[in-house]
């Protein structure tokens, strides 16, 4: 990427795991609305479930997630009881045991749960929902807190995918982000996953961290690939200390400058794709050629939700737990983020919805365009407009806004088809932002484009 393009386009824009994006959710969508939306879902609709475990044993300074720190298990035990109660409330609002194909445990750190509580949670889900045979059950795993008993319990409960947080193997980088995770700890955890038969392993890496170098990142990538993961995510560190106060503990002077950050991203992507043979997925994911995500990309069936790129085509994603975000045909909902507010609502027998947004057809139209850009790096605007019975010229203003991207070689236009070039891939979020009718670039509520 040319340095002049890096400076021109590296703006603060959303990651587009939803559209409209979370900053535009509002308190006008609450528990009553959510309950009505749940009750209106077709009983045959297959659901996905996301469970947010809102606790960690210690705070990683780079973290952008909703989490609380505890060294005691009592708050976690209280929280998981509340989450089970929310499962009951949601199932009751839906009516009957609805079919489920995807379950994802995120956080925070799901590995802070005891093995017994993890198994009990999956048991509760199977009691309240019809979890279909062959469903994907994925868990975000912190090797620092997962032990052999936990991994054995995961495997026995039917977990099919573990996503291991690595970030970077360099001890100096780990010290700078307060996440001390020696290589041997990750190696041991991978060994347990293999031994107990968890079939799929993902690894999450991060570029743009303090004291991180291009060579150091390449070394981390090579060592991660040696474990044989089916998928690797290469996320850019989002430094947003005005939103996440613990990030103020990171020495900003140690962060790579824009040019170095771009080199880390581009060299890292090249290493994964060219040297190691992974299929490049959208902005920041990589998959083995025989992985379901690579197959979905080739078939034009890749999707994007709050967990990032996914093969999950469900139109209804139920978010459970504090700060859990759900996506329904009618709109988006998010639970109270503070655990005490979440538990108070659930304890009173109410859904914990704090904010959300109802969708109109203009939102759905633009969401389709943005998702295809983010997933396929291209979109046929005429086809999307026709699918929504809109005039072909509905996006004339956005097409006109493509002119500088075309001039700089980041986008190609063929009539009303937009194709993001290889050089433009790094800036696909900036291209997608041209279709965002809510975005105010001056607000500064998002991370940088790369």
User: Oligomeric status of the shown chains?
Assistant: single chain
- Major sheet strand order: 9-10-8-7-6-5-4-1-13
Task: Flag low-confidence runs.
Answer: none
Number of alpha- plus pi-helical segments: 16
Number of strands: 19
Task: Please give the largest β-sheet.
Answer: 9 strands, mixed
- Cα gyration radius (Å): 21 Å
Alpha carbon gap, first and last residue: 11 Å
CATH architecture of the largest domain: Alpha-Beta Horseshoe
Mean pLDDT: 94
Q: What is the approximate shape?
A: globular
Helix fraction? Answer: 25-40%
The tally of domains stands at 2
Could you walk me through the main structural features you see in this protein, from its secondary elements to its overall organization?
- The protein has 450 residues and is of the alpha/beta class.
- The protein has two domains: 21-358, pyruvate-formate lyase- activating enzyme (Alpha-Beta Horseshoe), CATH 3.80.30; 361-439, Arc Repressor Mutant, subunit A (Orthogonal Bundle), CATH 1.10.10.
- It contains 16 helices and 19 strands.
- It has helices spanning 3-9, 31-39, 74-94, 115-128, 148-156, 171-176, 183-196, 214-225, 258-275, 292-298, 339-347, 361-376, 381-387, 396-401, 403-407, 428-432; strands spanning 47-53, 55-56, 68-69, 99-107, 130-141, 161-167, 200-207, 231-236, 279-281, 285-287, 303-305, 308-310, 316-320, 325-328, 331-335, 353-358, 378-380, 411-414, 417-420.
- Strands 9-10-8-7-6-5-4-1-13 form a nine-stranded mixed sheet, with helices on both faces. A three-stranded antiparallel sheet has the order 14-15-16, with helices on one face. The protein has a three-stranded antiparallel sheet with strand order 17-19-18.
- β9 (279-281) and β10 form a beta hairpin.
- α4 runs parallel beside α5 (148-156) and α5 (148-156) packs parallel to α7 (183-196).
- The longest helix is centred in the first third of the chain and has 21 residues, at 74-94.
- The chain is globular and about 60 Å long.
- It starts with a helix and ends in an 18-residue tail after the last helix.
């Amino acid at each position: 990427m040319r340095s002049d393009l890096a400076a021109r386009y590296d703006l603060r824009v959303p990651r587009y795991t939803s559209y409209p994006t979370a900053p535009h959710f509002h308190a006008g969508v609450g528990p009553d609305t959510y309950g009505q939306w749940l009750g209106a879902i077709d009983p045959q609709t297959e659901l996905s479930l996301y469970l947010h475990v809102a606790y960690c044993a210690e705070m990683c300074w780079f973290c952008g997630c909703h989490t609380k720190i505890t060294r005691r298990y009592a708050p976690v035990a209280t929280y998981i009881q509340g989450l089970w109660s929310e499962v009951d409330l949601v199932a009751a609002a839906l009516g009957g045991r609805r079919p489920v194909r995807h379950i994802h445990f995120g956080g925070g750190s799901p590995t802070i749960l005891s093995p017994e509580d993890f198994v009990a949670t999956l048991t509760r889900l199977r009691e309240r929902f019809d979890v279909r045979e062959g469903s994907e059950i994925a868990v975000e795993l912190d090797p620092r807190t997962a032990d052999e008993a936990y991994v054995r319990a995961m495997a026995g409960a039917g977990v099919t995918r573990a996503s291991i947080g690595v970030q970077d193997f360099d001890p100096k980088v780990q010290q700078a982000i307060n996440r001390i995770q020696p290589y041997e700890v990750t190696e041991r955890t991978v060994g347990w996953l293999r031994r107990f038969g968890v079939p799929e392993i993902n690894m999450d890496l991060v570029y743009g961290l303090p004291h991180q170098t291009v060579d150091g990142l390449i070394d981390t990538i090579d060592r991660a690939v040696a474990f044989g993961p089916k998928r690797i995510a290469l996320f850019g560190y989002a430094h947003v200390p005005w939103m996440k106060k613990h990030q103020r503990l990171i020495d900003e002077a140690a962060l790579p400058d824009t040019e170095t950050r771009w080199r880390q991203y581009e060299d890292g992507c090249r290493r994964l794709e060219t040297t190691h043979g992974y299929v490049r997925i959208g902005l920041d994911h990589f998959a083995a050629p025989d992985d379901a995500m690579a197959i979905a990309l080739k078939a034009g069936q890749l999707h994007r939700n709050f967990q990032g790129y996914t093969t999950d085509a469900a139109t209804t994603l139920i978010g459970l737990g504090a700060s859990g975000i759900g996506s329904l045909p009618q709109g988006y909902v998010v639970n109270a983020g503070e655990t005490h507010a979440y538990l108070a609502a659930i304890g009173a027998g109410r859904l914990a919805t704090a904010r959300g947004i109802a969708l109109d057809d203009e939102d759905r139209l633009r969401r389709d365009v943005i998702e295809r850009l983010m997933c396929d790096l291209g979109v046929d605007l005429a086809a999307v407009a026709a699918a929504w019975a809109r005039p072909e010229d509905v996006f004339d203003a956005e097409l006109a806004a493509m002119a500088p991207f075309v001039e700089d070689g980041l986008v190609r236009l063929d009539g009303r088809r937009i194709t993001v070039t290889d050089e433009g891939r790094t800036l696909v979020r900036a291209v997608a932002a041209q279709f965002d009718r809510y975005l105010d670039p001056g607000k500064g509520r998002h991370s940088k484009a790369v």
